[in-house]
Write a structure and sequence with these properties.
There is one protein chain. By secondary structure, this protein is mainly alpha-helical. It folds into 2 domains: 9-371, no CATH class; 415-471. The protein is built from 20 helices and 2 strands. The protein has helices at residues 9-35, 42-70, 101-122, 129-148, 152-170, 177-208, 213-216, 231-248, 257-260, 266-276, 280-287, 289-292, 296-317, 323-344, 347-367, 371-382, 401-412, 417-448, 452-458, 462-471; strands at 75-86, 89-98. It has a two-stranded antiparallel ribbon with strand order 1-2. Helix 5 (152-170) runs antiparallel to helix 6 (177-208) and helix 10 (266-276) packs antiparallel against helix 15.
Length: 472
Amino acid sequence: MEMTEHPYHRIIEVFGTLVIIAPVALLVLLGASSLLGRPLSERVIGRSVQAAVIVGLLSAFTVLGLMLAGGPPYRVPIEVGDWVVIPHYHFKVEFIFDRLSVPFVILSFLLCGTVGAFGTRYLHREPGFSRFFFLYALFLLGVVVATLANTIETLFFGWELVGLSSALLVAYYHERLSPVRNGLRVWCVYRISDAALLVASVFLHHLTGEGEFDILLGSDPWPLGQAHLSSHQALIVGLLILVAAMGKSALVPFSGWLPRAMEGPTPSSAVFYGALSVHLGAFLLLRVSPILDLSVWLRVAVVMAGLVTALFAAFAGRVQTDIKCALSFASLTQVGIIVAEIGLGFRYVALLHILGHGCLRTLQFVRAPTLLHDYKTMENALGTRLPQAQVPHSWAALMPENAREWFYRLALERGYLDGWLVDYVVAPFLGVFRWCDMAERKWIELLGGTTPEQAAARSPDRAAVLLEEVSL
């Protein structure tokens, strides 16, 4: 089916370019000031963030209005050009404004603007104020690029920026040991997710020779495209993409990193792990939904991953005593339902669910720091304590005492998913790296003529130290 050009194509290109340039300009401004040793004041940083978000948000709304006013086709690509052209491979940077990307990029600017305004007050006089907003700008650029990407390489670039900024913000309070360890945990899971997406992109290039979604998923507007793959090829590629989405959206068995990410500042918890980053895996599944349509088993796997995650998050969230952890598991429950909706074929329902849930969860995270203060104010006004909610009779009351204790501990330990991940996924890789480190030191000994004791004193076993840190 040949696609006609949108009546306002040129105007949409101009405003669409502004959507991308706004976070780039913010990142360059904050990064250059730090590199030059001239850090900006809190007021200038706040105004810069506000200006970038307003320009991007208004441009995105203008694109949406022009697309609706011009009528179909609701799809406008913006090409930046071929960056690499070699035999049997080319790397093109291209962005797409369609029914999926425009609502998500509007949500991204809206929530990042809200959290940015909150963060300028929450982090007032914090020593790492400028560092936080540099990582904030890096995340904003990553989520905009990943959302608007029309090639799998461009999406991978934005995907990496989101993962890097998220992990660094988990370890934002780097003077404490716990945030650094949890940031390392998050980074380990993201590496698995990134590797799966990278292998999927290489596999798609091997099968089709192309990386553009127009060719891979069909040129019809989302979600009407048709992928040009066989059912077996779609199953292999789809499973790799599903693993990537599971890691980024904290689906089972990668759910252990989400409550650990709450070590970061509340503004980052709100916009990253409560609203945008945790939904990015679901967005990826929506983008490649034509591939899901080619394999029944792939759709079953997506539905099962979503339902198992939703049940696990509801189970573990009931015993959390920290409000941010409780909200993170509540968010994960909804993400699991969204993924199940995608597997069942309810694409528009899943998109609306993401938009509504992202707004609600961001508001709850932003309100979390003042919740106890509000309760105290209400109790002082009433002159008594607030009434406690009565727990209704449930099936747990019918269970033996030892069984209830076992399930309580299982939920409190989050299903022991962290231990499973370290013992059966991270530890084998670190074992290989440890052997490589040992072989490297022996090779240096052979070439340099040093004794084993001298080499060991100069080069400690870095892999063993890393494994010990991850295990803790």
